[in-house]
Amino acid sequence: MIEDFREYKKNWLVGKVESSELLEVVKKVKEEYRTLITISPTDFLERIELNYFFTDLESKKSLWLKTDISRENSKIESISHIFGGANWHEREAFSTFGVDFIGHPNLKHIIISSDFYGKAPFRKDFDIEAHQKEVEKHSLDIASNFEDEFSENSDTETTLNWGPTHPASGPLRLKVGVDGEEIKKVSADIGFVWRALENLIERKDFVGAITAVERICFMDNTNSMLCYAMAVEEIAGVKPTPFAEVFRVILGEVGRVSSHFMGIGGFFGTMGLHTLQMWAMDSREYFLDFLEDYSGARIATASIEAGGVRFPLNLETLNTLEKAIEYYESKRDEFHSIFLKNPMMKKRASQIGIISADEVHEFSMAGVVARASGVETDIRKDEPYSAYEKFDFKVVTKNGGSAKNRFEVIFEEIDESVKILKQAVSDIRSGVSEGTYNLEKDHLVKVPKKLPKGEAVSRVEWARGELMMHLVTEEKGKTPYRLKIKAPSFNHTMMVEKLLEGCTISDIPIVFGSMYICQGDLDR
Amino acid sequence: MIKVLDFFDYARSESPWMVHFCSGCCSLEMAAAMGPRYDWERYGYLPTPTPRQADVIFITGLVSKKILPVLLRTYAQMAEPSYVVALGACAFDGGPYNDSMSVIKNVTEILPADVFIAGCPPRPEAIISGLEELKAKIKRGEPSSASQGGLWKEMKF
Ligand code: SF4
Q1: Pick from A283, A351, A289: which is nearest to A511 by CA?
Q2: How many Å apart are CA A139 and CA A135, to the nearest integer?
Q3: Which end of chain B is more exposed for a tag (fewer CB within 10 A), N or C?
Q4: pLDDT-based confidence at A135, cuts 50/70/90?
Q5: Which structural domain range is residue B121 located in?
Q6: What mean pLDDT do residues A131-150 have?
Q7: Which one-letter DSSP state was computed for residue A338?
Q8: Which residue has its alpha carbon closest to ligand 1 atom 8?
Q9: Residues of B with CB under 8 A from a CB of A
Q10: Cβ(A403)–Cβ(A352) under 8 Å?
Q11: CB of B38 closer than 8 Å to CB of B75
């Protein structure tokens, strides 16, 4: 049933199926691969190609299925009853590409704002200019819809709006149906920071796309640039130098650490304990100092591009990093004794938001959330990229899957990242003194401005979980033809809906905070 | 009577409270400005979760079409005089998302800002210096720009 079945890269298989046979194939796929990563449509003007990415978090094997559907009659069988995680991904493809998923339980628009409903804005023939001419009318429509929506209440149930201006929510709204204190139903309203990045990138060149890619989420922006750079390098057939690979690890881990600090701060902040938030922000500043020393910017570093890293390294910059590590380590024990053993945290967070290992597979949880439920998944180990194979670190897992466990995983991962950073710094120092690394030249190899026709999938372990990009290019293309970004918060927010049912109102911030969600990567 | 009003203006200018509202990535640097290293409380600023008690609202960079009514309603809920501070390239003209299909490019035409703070994202120092500027404006007794005009007055939200 699967045509042209072959190996794409290590542990990856790729094949093509007829759209009419998809459902049957997917049923078989489920026996071997338990998780759906994402569904990525590409519009080729004469047809729409749907790419399904599956993986198994235990056997570490992945599968990529392609199927074609026609543009005019873009219908296909829904797979969300087989893979629970497909639910929102199908809704996204429906909203952005107008693909109709037959049998989907709740095929409503998601992410896009209401002026794009039914218009399939990511298709190649969508006329943005014409659409933008009416922007004023659209804004007014959205504003009056907003008024209607916020006044919805039925006789039997009260609807609470948690967000989009709640101090812990960020720009996202949970519509919470409550009966007294008890939560009956939750549905998430997202898209408040939708910037249509996937579409915006199609109008930038390969280097310019970096500014958009790093803005997926600013908490950890280095790893998202890395993911994009890897996809471009794969198509261009370029390999960065060993030095650049090691330095990318450093940048990536600094991004992870500074994001984790925000994460633990946010989690405790939602409980009303702002001390940790302040302490974490304090330690984070020192890591940002390093980024600033290296690139000139604290956050928007634009420091990783295809071919390596953007700037040559001055060895003194590494001193700033060592200072940051030292500072954190001097604070570490205090952090642990006050917050990890905090009785309030133990009481409030250990019984709620529990995710089982089966749910992790079924609903495509990733990163911290998956590891807190005992699923040992970490792209840095499963599909090693950059120079991660060189370094020794362990994958932190916890059994239990509660909000508290997730918090513990984030906490302990900071230590693992610090371990990697130390090894990488000494690797660079010894490499320079032995003469294997040339700091003046090694940072960047040239990548052609025009890429050949191709397709690449790259995955990295982001601070919040797996980030995957699917890049499609055309012959002599100067811009990406299509870039699909799969980011972890999307599925995690979907899970929040399920987790909160049956909880009480006061549990919302803690459960939400523990899922480590960034609205940037949720909406893209 | 005049003396009493002067006193209130003075008090307000030395402790502007800011409503919690974030819509773009600039809010990360705003968080840093609240954090221990830059600590804007030294200057009298305080974030508050409710618009009813706030004097200032931040447009934290990007404003998408979907969040625009939220911004306007939050602003309208604030008690007069209420000031607006715009952060970042996005609040000016869409910044890096200028040609995105879902971003409002003229936020400050809709909701005029009293102070613009440049950067992408602006550094915490810049944010604090922008707020000092706002203090000066309040001290001079000038009305807030948004109360003087802007498209928001004609919109329903
Ligand atoms: S100005 Fe820059 S940092 Fe601020 S919201 Fe816009 S893109 Fe983000």
Answers
A1: A351
A2: 6
A3: N
A4: confident
A5: 2-154
A6: 77
A7: I
A8: B25
A9: 19-25, 28-29, 31-32, 35-37, 47, 49, 51, 62, 64-70, 72-74, 96-97, 99-104, 120-121, 123, 155-157
A10: yes
A11: no
Give the per-residue pLDDT at A218.
84
A467 is a domain residue: yes
Closest to A195 (Cβ–Cβ): which among B28, B100, B121?
Answer: B100
Instruction: Express the helix, strand and coil content of chain A in percent, nearest 5 each.
Output: 45, 20, 35
Residue A374, sorted as left (phi over 0), alpha (psi -120 to 50) or beta, turns out to be left
Interface pTM, i.e. ipTM = 0.87
Q: Are residues A79 and A215 in the same domain?
A: no
Which tens digit of pLDDT belongs to each residue from A392-422? 888 888 888 888 888 888 888 899 999 999 9
> Each residue of A280-319: pLDDT tens digit?
888 889 999 998 988 888 888 888 888 888 888 888 888 9
The share of chain A scoring above pLDDT 90, in percent, equals 4
Q: Is A515:A491 a contact under the CB 8 Å cutoff?
A: no
Domain shared by A237 and A332, yes or no? yes
Q: Tell me the helix, strand and coil percentages in chain B, rounded to 5.
A: 45, 15, 40
Name residues whose C-beta falls within 8 Å of residue B74's C-beta, 6 or more positions apart in sequence.
A165, B19, B21, B51, B57
Beta strands in A109-255 (DSSP E): 158-162, 173-179, 182-189
Token readout for A336 is 């642990």
Please give the Cα distance from A126 to A111 (Å, whole number). Answer: 17
Number of domains making up chain B: 1
Single out the residue in A111, A144, A172 at which a domain terminates. A111
Taking an 8 Å cut-off on Cβ atoms, the answer to whether A144 and B21 are in contact is no
Protein residues with CB under 6 Å of any ligand 1 atom: A 215; B 24-26, 61-62, 88-90, 95-96, 120-121
Please tell me the distance in Å from B4's CA to the nearest CA on chain A: 34
- Concatenating the DSSP letter of every residue in A460-496 gives EEETTEEEEEEEEE-TTBSS-SEEEEE-THHHHHHHH
pLDDT-derived band of residue A153, with 50, 70 and 90 as boundaries?
low
The token pair that represents A379 in the structure block: 């792209």
Query: Which CATH number is B54's domain given?
Result: 3.40.50.12280
Measured distance CA(A429)–CA(A425) in Å, rounded = 6
pLDDT in the model for residue A286 = 92
Residue A222: CB partners within 8 Å, gap ≥ 6?
A: A214, A251, A252, A254, A255, A291, A301, A303, A304
Q: Provide the b/e sequence for A52-82 (b: ≥16 CB within 10 Å).
A: bbbbbbeeeebbbbbbebebeebebbbbbee
Whether A427 maps to a domain, the answer reads yes
Query: A51 lies in which domain range?
Result: 3-111
Start-to-end Cα distance in chain A: 35
Tell me the C-alpha to C-alpha distance, in Å, between residue B35 and each of A254, A281, A311, B28, B30. Answer: 19, 6, 29, 10, 9
pTM for the structure as a whole: 0.90
CA angle B151–B156–B157, rounded 5-degree value: 105
